[in-house]
Amino acid sequence: LLEMRDIVKSYQVGDEEQIILDHIDFTVDENQFVSVLGPSGSGKSTLMNIIGCLDMATGGEYCLAGQLIEDMDQTELARIRNKEIGFVFQSFQLLNRLSVLENVELPLIYAHTPTHERRQKALEIIDRVGLSHRIDYFPNQLSGGQQQRVAIARAVITQPSILLADEPTGALDQATGRAVLDLFKELHREGRTIIMITHDASIASAAQRIVKLLDGRLYEGEAANA
Amino acid sequence: LLEMRDIVKSYQVGDEEQIILDHIDFTVDENQFVSVLGPSGSGKSTLMNIIGCLDMATGGEYCLAGQLIEDMDQTELARIRNKEIGFVFQSFQLLNRLSVLENVELPLIYAHTPTHERRQKALEIIDRVGLSHRIDYFPNQLSGGQQQRVAIARAVITQPSILLADEPTGALDQATGRAVLDLFKELHREGRTIIMITHDASIASAAQRIVKLLDGRLYEGEAANA
Ligand SMILES: Nc1ncnc2c1ncn2[C@@H]1O[C@H](COP(=O)(O)OP(=O)(O)OP(=O)(O)O)[C@@H](O)[C@H]1O
Ligand SMILES: Nc1ncnc2c1ncn2[C@@H]1O[C@H](COP(=O)(O)OP(=O)(O)OP(=O)(O)O)[C@@H](O)[C@H]1O
Ligand SMILES: [Mg+2]
Ligand SMILES: [Mg+2]
User: Fold this and answer.
1) How many angstroms is it from A47 CA to the middle of ligand 3?
2) Residue A168 is inside which H or E element, if any?
3) Whose CA is nearest to atom 2 of ligand 2?
4) Distance B211 CA to ligand 1 centre (A)
5) Mean of the per-residue pLDDT values for chain B?
6) A198 lines ligand 1 (CB under 6 A)
7) A74, A98, B19, B165: least surrounded by Cβ within 10 Å?
8) Which H helix or E strand runs over A124?
9) Listed residue (A157, A197, A142) closest to B171, CA to CA
10) Ligand 2 pocket residue status of B46, Cβ below 6 Å
């Protein structure tokens, strides 16, 4: 489904070149559930942004569903981002002027889903993450973990074939984190592909496969549920 | 040191009144290390903001070092926030136009610390949180965990008598989180008072005392190191 070959990502900072991703090969099959672990600053979010077509690599090739990302135009990339990929951002990235309900509905507005169906689906997923009592609140009236759950709801509402989750339980207590993981497992059983960055070893072990990022290089880990 | 009596905090949302903190009594002695646990949305950050004099309670009394907070004017509150309290925010709240070094130095600028001493202290604490190689970077060039560590460095640089930390290891891998906890334990040994919100039970257990917030009410928990 997803194949990265010899991927390099670097930044120019002042007169130094910082290499963040250092020649990475990474293949993910359809319907695989992968956890990505690694120290703070090791490049996990950077890798995820490239996978999610939000950033371009400095070098190497990235093939998604048989198509080379480097050859795609903006229209095609936008279509993939909206239809195929759901992204839970580490910093949530909610729209502050929209309510919880409006934030969650937004991807279905882009997908031209009829109003009634859109509202129905939004209310369902909001209920699923335990926020029915907050639908008319704005992001700055929510707790950290509530904001995170809105970001999760928004990422899964289009039922994407690939779910990219960057630290999806970082702001959540144990019980709420477990509920989110159950949601992910359910999406996985439906056939979707899930790539999840996490610092929590117990959350990581829910995946079939674990990879580790260290100094910009990728290593296969031992997974509990392989 | 810190005494809250019958504290109430509520918000008016539309025509409803939401009670977030429901008659809380909370006393913390000097040099105590307290962990605050509780589900997402239970009111932990709200409680912390009142303790840190960033927000006012709707009802009840809050006494800090023998003085009633409700009777203080803005000047005195500002003095306490700058000199006595260090705050690690759940959302970091770094200044995006300032570099890592400048963000960390800022509290010492307010304290009128001489330039040379200020720079020295900033470089030391930045090194302590493992970010010497990032001092000239801006927050939007940092990873989530790097931003969190800058927030921690900034909160402790004034050597505050009270450290308030809201989810200080949420974005950190195990090893980096442990290093931050070691820093907090060291500050505790120096005589400071630490109140730490965390979802991580293993981090919480480093404290002497655990309290739990549930539906806006505070309960004493059993602490491992009491
Ligand atoms: N725009 C940028 N310019 C320069 N360096 C950058 C930029 N964005 C990120 N970096 C650097 O890339 C490195 C990796 O960042 P990334 O966000 O991918 O880490 P991460 O593994 O997700 O960390 P964390 O676990 O803390 O979230 C960091 O050292 C960061 O300073
Ligand atoms: N400005 C506001 N207006 C209305 N309600 C608010 C406002 N700020 C916070 N709340 C509500 O107060 C409740 C508690 O928020 P708080 O941020 O204290 O929770 P928390 O325990 O820190 O949660 P988390 O673990 O998710 O960070 C939440 O239900 C939130 O919706
Ligand atoms: Mg990251
Ligand atoms: Mg909070």
Assistant:
1) 9
2) none
3) A141
4) 35
5) 95
6) no
7) A74
8) helix A115-128
9) A197
10) yes
